[in-house]
Amino acid sequence: MPFSADAAETLALNALGWLVANDELLPVFLSSTGASEADVKAQMANPEFLGSVLDFLMMDDAWIVAFCDANDISYDHPMQARAVLAGPADMHWT
Description:
With 94 residues, the chain is mainly alpha-helical. The chain has one domain. 69% of the residues lie in helices and 0% in strands. The chain is built from six helices and no strands. The protein has helices at residues 5-21, 25-33, 37-43, 47-57, 61-71, 77-86. The chain is globular, with a radius of gyration of 13 Å. The mean pLDDT is 91. InterPro entries: DUF3572.
C-alpha cells in the first residue's frame, strides 16, 4: 500500500524525534547538514527537510535498522516515505 503524504510526513517526524533523542547521532546529523538545533525546530514542517532526515538515516544500515526497530516499522518504509516527500520533482527515469 503506497504511503500518503500525511503518513510519509508522520514517519519522517517520528524519525526526526528519534534522531533528536539520540545523543550520539544528533551531533553527526547537525555537523553533516550544517543545521543548528534552531533550524531543526524551524524546519520540522518542511517536507524537504524531513526528507533530508530520512536521507541521513538511510546513509547507514545500522542507523535505519535502529530507527525501524525502535518504532516497530518495516525497513523499507523510510524509503517509501522519502519517495513521497520528494514528490515527482525528484524522480529520475534514466
